[in-house]
Design brief:
CATH superfamily of the largest domain: MFS general substrate transporter like domains
Radius of gyration: 21 Å
Number of helices: 18
Oligomer: single chain
Structural class: mainly alpha
Helix content: over 70%
Number of strands: 0
CATH topology of the largest domain: Growth Hormone, Chain: A
Order of helices and strands: HHHHHHHHHHHHHHHHHH
């Protein structure tokens, strides 16, 4: 059972619903590519552009948005991003060809950054002493959306609605969430004092004012550049990218591995993907109460050590049934990796949740080259050999994670109790 403190407020539920809708849209979109390709007559090259260009553009736009969210009216950015998000979904549903769909996606990805990513920052600011449990809830909400997306698409096709009507429906849900979110103030360090009280809105966060926090965009840029050079911030950025080797990177190559290396059909390879996503969803749920009782760093170190043993067994054992069992164990053990590491990055930058998004986007631009590098290696050495390189993920966690602090020493990366945030940041 959760402790009474873990009960979710209406504000937190709204933020989790925003993440759910975003991942629901993503999950349905990934499954809808065959339908969209047939309807619009797209080539593989055009699909590749549609997958990569909007993401790169979104990362670039989110850089200034994250910094601006710390020094300006975050509420306007989030609500405005939600309305543009809905508009982009409508334009997607109306797209008549490649160019129209590309323009819609170029609008959708930055809008998601404003609507969804800044909502994540607001969630972190809602209780700075509980970054890890709240990030675990955020990750679980997204996992539910990813799993539900293809199911919702299948239902829409079965009743004759199709992918266009589904996107229009997602747009309507986005508008409803914007209306619900407009009830809250979304204060940040620059606007929390005075402005929200005068507006009559309910404050969703109790972030204390700190004179050292940035108050102008230039200050925010300078502060973010200073932060990305700090050793503790770099630690969490590197570990986030390393952990992704056993998360999205492995997921991207999973179906290809089972077809090309294990030698099963594409339909049966879908079973492996289903095992991964379903068990991952269960793991994301279980890690929420786990982090109420176990420090996040302890769990990370333990699970990474187990992955270092199970993943080689997964690659070496030829039996399909055993591979699926081991794959399920991997999906269970890496649950919470992103949530804990992302929460630690927020904790390393107190009062700069928006800037935390910005520096994470910078590292994401570099991390985005990893799948390309692995693809080039696989082209020469084969996918089976290439996937052994993913062991660098759990190995980096074991080497790079800070040692647990002594019982009489404060956690060096947790918010200081003297700031009025308590000692819950240790996990």
């Amino acid at each position: 059972m959760f402790r009474p403190r873990a009960r979710l407020s209406a504000f937190i539920v709204t933020l989790l619903l925003i993440e759910f809708l975003d991942e629901l849209t993503f999950g349905a979109s990934e499954a809808a590519w065959p339908l969209i390709r047939t309807d619009l007559g797209l080539t593989y090259a055009q699909i590749g552009v549609l997958m990569s260009a909007p993401r790169l553009f979104g990362n670039l736009v989110e850089l200034p948005l994250g910094i601006l969210a710390d020094v300006w009216r975050r509420r306007i950015l989030i609500l405005g991003g939600g309305l543009v998000f809905a508009l982009a979904l409508v334009l997607t549903s109306l797209s008549a060809g490649f160019v129209a769909l590309l323009l819609a996606f170029l609008l959708l990805y930055p809008a998601s950054g404003a609507f969804v990513s800044l909502s994540q920052a607001a969630l972190m600011d809602s209780d700075p002493a509980r970054h890890e449990p709240n990030m675990a809830r955020w990750t679980f909400a997204g996992s539910v959306g990813v799993v539900a997306g293809p199911l919702v698409l299948s239902l829409a096709v079965a009743v004759g609605l199709g992918w266009r009507a589904l996107y229009a429906g997602f747009a309507a849900l986005a508008v409803l969430l914007v209306i619900r979110a407009s009830r809250f103030a979304f204060p940040n360090s620059a606007t929390a004092q005075g402005h929200e009280a005068r507006s009559g809105k309910r404050s969703a966060s109790a972030v204390p004012h700190d004179a050292g926090k940035p108050h102008t965009f230039r200050d925010g840029v300078r502060s973010a550049l200073q932060a990305i050079r700090r050793r503790d911030v770099l630690r969490w950025l590197v570990l986030l990218e390393a952990s992704d080797l056993m998360l999205d990177v492995l997921y991207s190559f999973l179906a290809l591995y089972f077809v090309d290396e294990v030698g099963i059909s594409a339909d049966r390879a879908g079973l492996a993907v289903a095992v991964w996503t379903t068990v991952g969803l269960i793991g994301d749920f279980l890690v929420i109460p786990l982090l109420e009782r176990v420090p996040g760093l302890v769990y990370l170190r333990f699970s990474a050590a187990l992955v270092l043993v199970i993943y080689p067994a997964f690659l070496l054992i030829p039996l399909l049934g055993v591979k699926l069992v081991l794959l399920g164990l991997l999906g269970l053990l890496n649950a919470g990796w992103y949530a804990i590491l992302r929460a630690r990055l927020y904790s390393a930058m107190p009062g700069q949740s928006g800037a935390s998004l910005a520096v994470n986007n910078i590292s994401g631009l570099v991390g985005g080259l990893i799948p390309l590098a692995l693809g080039l290696i696989a082209e020469r050495a084969g996918l089976g050999v290439t996937l052994w390189l993913l062991l660098a993920g759990p190995l980096a966690l074991l080497i790079g994670l800070p040692r647990p602090p002594r019982s009489n020493s404060p956690d060096p990366i947790s918010p200081s109790p003297q700031r009025g945030e308590g000692a819950r940041g240790r996990g």
